[in-house]
Specification:
The longest helix has 47 residues. The chain contains two helices and no strands. The protein has one domain. By secondary structure, the chain is mainly α. It is rod-shaped.
């Protein structure tokens, strides 16, 4: 390992970690996950097109049905992304906790 001057320092190295900033990043990720989840009601994610909105032709009905499927796919995708973002937030929070433990000496260094 090298220190901030680029020289070899053996088996130890100093590392400065802004754990409050890591915790804030986790909070922001939690907020993003909550926004992606939505409020869970179907009313929010209703297809914006009505059956007769584009006319009565078979093509118009197919467009409306396809749009409805895409809305549901988008909702599912957003919810899947919310799960991943929430997992990332938890990992960031865990990293902050581990850095704090290491700083206080709760984690022993290498033997």
């Amino acid at each position: 390992m090298t220190d901030d001057k680029g020289t070899v320092s053996g088996l130890t190295a100093d590392l400065t970690v802004d754990t409050p900033l890591l915790r804030r990043a986790a909070e922001i990720a939690d907020q993003a996950a909550n926004a992606l989840r939505g409020d869970g009601t179907c009313e929010v994610f209703r297809n914006p097109l009505s059956d007769a909105g584009l006319g009565s032709s078979a093509a118009a009905r197919e467009v409306v049905e396809a749009a409805g499927r895409r809305v549901l796919e988008a909702v599912d995708g957003a919810r899947a992304l919310a799960v991943r973002v929430a997992m990332a937030a938890e990992k960031i929070r865990t990293a902050a906790e581990q850095f704090e433990r290491a700083e206080t000496g709760a984690i022993r260094g290498p033997r």
